[in-house]
Design a protein that fits this description.
It is built from eleven helices and 15 strands. It is of the alpha/beta class. It binds 6-O-phosphono-beta-D-fructofuranose (F6P).
Length: 365
């Protein structure tokens, strides 16, 4: 055990997801009970570190938070310390304020910092470790499950359950009204939520970014069902799905966000096109942030708890610049440098896609 570690800091960065509180709880409990450390939580991601908004976290502070969605520390996908917006003479300019983070870490006597985040927050963690020498350890979260360095991120399983429940509910109304319903789910540039929820919910068509679709093929599948007397169809569209030779549907661009492109809108686009092409009544449902909220599933609670304890263990072994990861069945670690920037996309000839095709699901290709 590294005797020099007395106090650790923790923050949650990027978009929230179910299980963040479970990680915070496990960090606090492991740090205090196992290693007799104290813990400071920084509020609202890197914003709290830049603006020195911090509070002590004791075991009392984490009572009852295991099943709670969101994060008691708050989060944001803005406030990148290396590209931070500042007003100068009424004009917004972007500055590197990472030294403020170093100052605040020193003010609070933090010996190690645990960053719970997705690709954006972990990339900043990597920079803080490499450029500023900060003792950083990462914990991977995101409902998108698109980090290559871990078998699974926490939050995904809960989002999957929410999306599957939505498909189940849409089935009954689509069937009653003989309609086509398109469900748009999140996932950014990866199709995991759409693919797995589509499989679990029995979708007829699944559109994912990894497999560009044509409207003709989607319509062909719907017509084939009609020919068999199936008067309704369920289409699940990942927000990042795109037609062959076309682009993803972008809602807006957000300059100072970790993720400058806000995706969304494919559901309505595809629903309109299907109705135009088939004459069949077609509706769209956008699941949106419902996928990010609510109580984590048992799987996510357990994974998040193992990640939280694992992150403190990494700190105590001096393994800075690393991130905890799941290498089923074990919690292991990987250098942040390897963990960030490499997306885990759906393998288009993988077993899950093959199985989906075998049972008649169309990917519109
Ligand atoms: O990365 C998680 C995620 O929910 C994506 O699936 C989605 O594209 C994005 O975040 C939405 O972010 P925001 O909450 O900033 O709109």
């Amino acid at each position: 055990m590294n005797k020099k570690i007395r106090k650790i800091g923790v923050l949650t960065g990027g978009g929230d997801c179910p299980g963040l509180n479970a990680v915070i709880r496990a960090v606090v409990k492991t740090a205090i009970r196992e290693y007799r450390l104290s813990v400071t939580g920084f509020e609202n991601g890197f914003g709290g570190l830049i603006q020195n908004r911090a509070r002590d976290l004791t075991e009392k502070d984490v009572i009852g938070i295991l099943p709670r969605g969101g994060t008691i520390l708050g989060t944001t996908n803005r406030d990148n310390p290396f590209y931070y917006p500042i007003m100068i003479n009424g004009e917004r300019v972007f500055k590197d304020v990472s030294d403020r983070i170093v100052e605040n870490i020193n003010i609070h006597d933090i010996d190690a910092l645990i960053i719970i985040g997705g690709d954006g927050s972990l990339s900043i963690g990597k920079e803080l470790y490499e450029k500023k020498g900060l003792p950083v350890v990462g914990v991977p979260k995101t409902i998108d499950n698109d980090l290559s360095a871990t078998d699974q991120t926490f939050g995904f399983d809960t989002a999957l359950e929410t999306a599957t429940e939505a498909i189940d509910k849409l089935h009954t109304t689509a069937e009653s009204h003989h309609r086509i319903i398109v469900l748009e789910v999140m996932g950014r540039y990866a199709g995991w939520i759409a693919l797995e929820a589509g499989l679990a919910g029995g979708a007829d068509v699944i559109l994912i970014p990894e497999i560009p679709y044509t409207l003709e093929n989607v319509v062909r599948k719907i017509h084939a069902r009609q020919d068999k007397g199936k008067t309704f169809s369920i289409v699940v569209a990942a927000e990042g799905a795109k037609p062959v030779g076309g682009e993803m549907v972008v809602q807006r661009r957000v300059e100072d966000s970790f993720e400058p492109i806000r995706l969304g809108g494919i559901g309505n686009v595809v629903a309109y096109q299907i109705e135009e092409a088939t004459g069949l009544e077609t509706r769209a449902t956008v699941l949106g942030h419902l996928q990010r909220g609510g109580s984590p599933t048992p799987f996510d609670r357990i994974l998040a708890t193992r990640y939280g304890a694992g992150a403190v263990n990494l700190v105590m072994s001096g393994r800075f610049g690393e991130m905890v990861c799941l290498r089923t069945p074990n919690i292991e670690s990987v250098p942040l440098a390897k963990a960030v920037g490499e997306q885990r996309l759906v393998p288009i000839d993988g077993d899950m896609v093959r199985t989906a095709r075998q049972i008649g699901i169309s990917f519109g290709d």
